[in-house]
Design goal:
The chain has 227 residues and is α+β, with helices and mostly antiparallel strands. It has 8 helices and 11 strands. The protein folds into 2 domains: 145 residues, Sandwich (Jelly Rolls), CATH 2.60.120; 76 residues, Winged helix-like DNA-binding domain superfamily/Winged helix DNA-binding domain (Arc Repressor Mutant, subunit A, Orthogonal Bundle).
Length: 227
């Protein structure tokens, strides 16, 4: 990818959309392109923060590891997403998660220190960054509500409905079931049991990563009943 292509990728990201051409070029000069193979880590939990990232292609798993060695998937970042940008405002920041590629991926790393300095020159970009962080905060609040109020079955059904195309009842899961289970905060064996129950009720069937929805209305009703 040449310099012009990197500029176009940055320009297409909402976070950088209000930057001038001069500012975009400055960001590009303080950026680096990273190609990752599946299973490769971008950074580890506890590492010093140097950059934040824009996903150009692929899929990045953000996760924490407990002292007991258990993994909890926090987010899955896909094409067009930025992550770790809020950390530039912390004193002596460290990444609170590990970032690992779930598939061959390409990301742009943007130097956090230089970008923070540039924010002083662009009020519009400051507001865009605040909006991005508020949007993510609302998502985290919704997730806390779901974990507190919804059953594992409802969380699973909601996830499948989010992944399903609106006009197609057949689709492929993009990540492994173990990753989905961790993202939904259910044990893998519980996740398998939920899928088995949905299959027995003739609501959903899953073969490997291939999903077939048999009764979308029943899925929606189960989610609505939990509200």
């Amino acid at each position: 990818m040449d310099s012009q292509s990197i500029l176009e990728s940055l320009r297409g990201c909402m976070l950088f959309s209000e930057l001038t051409e001069e500012q975009l070029e400055r960001v590009r000069q303080h950026s680096h392109l990273i190609d990752m193979v599946e299973g490769e880590s971008l950074f580890f939990q506890g590492d010093d923060v140097v950059s934040f990232y824009l996903v150009l292609s692929g899929r990045i798993k953000l996760y924490r590891v407990s002292p007991e060695g258990k993994e909890k998937v926090v987010e899955i970042m896909e094409q067009g997403a930025t992550f770790a940008e809020a950390l530039m405002f912390m004193d002596q920041p460290h990444y609170p998660v590990t970032a690992t590629a779930l598939a061959p991926s390409r990301v742009i790393g943007i130097n956090s220190r230089d970008f923070k300095s540039m924010l002083r020159e662009s009020v519009d970009t400051c507001f865009l960054l605040m909006g991005s962080m508020c949007f993510r905060l609302r998502g985290l609040i919704r997730e806390i509500d779901a974990l507190s109020l919804e059953t594992g079955t409802v969380r699973t059904i909601s996830y499948l409905l989010e992944q399903a195309p609106p006009d197609d009842d057949n689709f492929e899961l993009q990540v492994a079931k173990s990753v989905i289970a961790s993202r939904l905060s259910v044990k893998p064996e519980t996740f398998s049991r939920i899928l088995k129950n949905l299959h027995e009720q003739k609501i959903v069937s899953i073969d490997g990563r291939s999903v077939t929805i048999h009764d979308r209305d029943a899925m929606i009703d189960l989610c609505s009943a939990a509200e």
